[in-house]
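Example (one chain per record):
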Amino acid sequence: MDDSRIIELYFARDNSAINETKQKYGKLLYSVSYNILKTHEDAEECESDTYMAAWDQIPPTKPQVLSAFLSRITRNLSFKKLRANTAQKRGGGNQSLPIDELANLIPDNTNAISELEITEILNAFLRELPTRDRQVFICHYWYCDSIKDISRQFGFTQSKVKMILSRTRQKLLDHLEQQEVFI
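Predicted structure:
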């Protein structure tokens, strides 16, 4: 079933919307969550919670890209779950995520710019990248895919994936400096 039809089911408050969403996007959402949480039970819980959050948000929201909308919900739920899990375990806060690499690029003394402005700057940066580099970057930093998984997916060596990510991070840093994000 195509995305527009699934969204129509949500707007009609038809319970089959959740089943259709799970059938089409279940593996993606589970994968996104598992890449962050690294436990099957927690990933399954976040995937399930995503369907309920989508049910609550559609309507009034009408997503332009359903997969991105659902992935964002899953990521947010997974990060929230990860924070809760690490808060419960002493010493459990040492888990590093790919997004932490990007956070370390940006010093605390950035200009006071809105989240929307940062999003626009990042989207412009991503549009400028060659397709391959953009795909590798998104796989690692959005979907939290491991270097090993990305190398398998693209048929690259792990060192090539690391090189692409390193060069792309440097390009991002240069782009942020050009956009005067830093003081």
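Caption: The chain is about 70% helix and 0% strand.
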